[in-house]
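In keeping with the milestone schedule agreed at the kick-off meeting, the structural modelling team has produced records for the first pair of proteins. Each record is given below as a sequence line and a structure-token line. The laboratory manager (R.T.) confirmed that both were archived under the project's standard naming scheme.
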Amino acid sequence: MEIVFFDDEGSSNLRPLNYLMRTEELRCGVLTLKEKAELVFSGIKSPFTLLLNSRLIADAPLGKVISSCKEECALAFGGVVFAAVVSGKKARSFAGIQTLPCKDAGAVLIKYPWDLVHKNAEEIKKDIALLRPKRSFRKDVYIGRGCTVKPGVVFDTEDGPIFIDDGAKILGNSVIMGPCYIGKGTTIKAIAKIYGGTSIGPMCKVGGEVEGSIFQGYSNKQHDGFLGHSYICEWVNLGADTNNSDLKNNYGNVKVSLNGKMVDTGHMFVGLFMGDHSKAGINTMFNTGTVVGVSSNVFGAGFPPKFVPSFSWGGADKLVEYDIEKAVQTAKAVMKRRKVEMTKEYEVLLRKVFKETTSERFSLK
């Protein structure tokens, strides 16, 4: 069954996480949203094409609902269309979806960035249950091919399983607590403390203390410092002793700046959301619910603003606009160190994000 993803208006609420990657490529659990859908729906034989909302977290029960669709129809939850079974021209143009017969069905749609973080622990467990039949686990721990586990490492599976993907390195005296996912080629530094509910994507270097957080991939937090209930996109570097707060002193709900408005998350634990190619200098401190856009550099004493616009440079004292040419050159250099060449299409997208976020930086001039 062919799967085609589509964005709706709700996708804009996931900024800055999906500026440089499609929404379905965001990680939640072991897998990305796209990988979950492909795994859940791969066995369905149907002449139809399946259109999926990119914010959908696919699961096995939904697979049964889709497989039962024998004619064109749309599926909705809470008034939001999350899937459609179509044929012909509708499979590419998305035209006429709203006119299809609509059925109500249960579904989970990501609404805000913190939804990915707070659903992560449970999604790790669900993903491992899907992947487990084809892999050999030992006492709820899977260690992939070519992995290195140094002496003194502790795997604690009391609260959930642990998945160490191919080529990962776990250095000495680290503690990994489940549920947890460590991605392909990722290195966990010596004496690191990785608590449950954490997913670290491919080719990362992570040390210090991490709790209930997601690294999309290709990002570094090599040194001591605390990161909690946060989402870190690709090509990010957190300097030595970078820390974030994920709990207010009054234990109240954390509010986050989203599309120019402060949104009550409804959660007590909410940390940092950092877009692709952003950096934090040594000893940087982030407040609860801080959002840092794409390709920003944050440094200096004190807490920076809770919203740092994309392509900004500075910290608590002052933020200035980051020159786009310098930003592109730095991004190319960072990617090249991991043997990844920036494509022309990616550069065009990076420049497009700079233009789209110009209004966010008006106050800096």
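The second protein of the pair:
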Amino acid sequence: MRDVPRVTSVLAVIARPGQESADLGALLYAFRRSGARLAVLSLTRGEASPLNSTIERLETRRPWELQVAVGLLGVTALAVADYPDGGLARRPAQELTELVGREIRRHGADLVIILDPVTVDSDDAVVAGAARAAAGQAGVPTVVRMMLGTGSGRVVTLGPEATVARAVQRSAAAAHSSQAEALPEVERRLNLLGDREMLRWLAPAA
């Protein structure tokens, strides 16, 4: 197993708030500890979630929770688009690709990270397609965060600060208090992962 690759600037592209923490949190923390600048782009406000442990409207609450979470992870730049949660497949693919491309150029990203488009919902598949296309146009490698055991990928370790990375990830996930009902399942998955993550390159690493 290897540690996460060393890069200068990472752009994480997600479909909705919460994924940056529950799915990518430890990886983002590890990239930051290795010296990378972090940016996150969420294409929706996450309003379609069936969960809401608050009395607020999700389209208002979830972007605020996202701001808190990325602060805990050490993300220095956050953008939240206003596309409909659950409706990304109805948007022009080129429009989404151009949006991701602008964020790549804005942050000088030399790595784009996304969730596995094979094992996630249709919005995430659309996000993955747009991110991969934009990264390809920019000549930037894309890496997919996969669930262990779901396919071919490279297992990496979070390094000597793995315990801290997972603790930070848990805190960031808990910042999404409107989604509190999902936290036990997040905890279960993180306990199984330990200090490991699986990555798959969609383009050659620089």
